[in-house]
Write a structure and sequence with these properties.
The protein is mainly beta. The chain has strands spanning about 15, 20-25, 30-40, 45-50, 60-65, 75-90, 90-105. A hairpin with a 4-residue loop joins strand 2 and strand 3.
Amino acid sequence: MVASVMARKADRVQLALPVNFRWKGPTSALRGLGRTRDITAQGSMFIDSDTLPPLSAIVRCFLLVPSLDATARDPYLLGTAVGRVQRVEKHGFAVRARIFSLRNRVK
């Protein structure tokens, strides 16, 4: 028996953050809600959700990330990731982010 192991390019951190996501369907924009299971520093993530975009769909994800600044006016930062769905499972999917940004929600 030969086992193949696919090495991950980035370390993943188990982190459960609320996320809403959208993608373009055949006739309109579609959206869903979920929670991250794990995430990389580059923004790639696995999202637990009952709403599943199709394999290879480009999704835009919005995450609420707790701020580490105890004096911040807003206790959360907004994380935004854009990437392609790499894997779809029964209750979730993996996104490989091309773009990831983190910013204050309050200006």
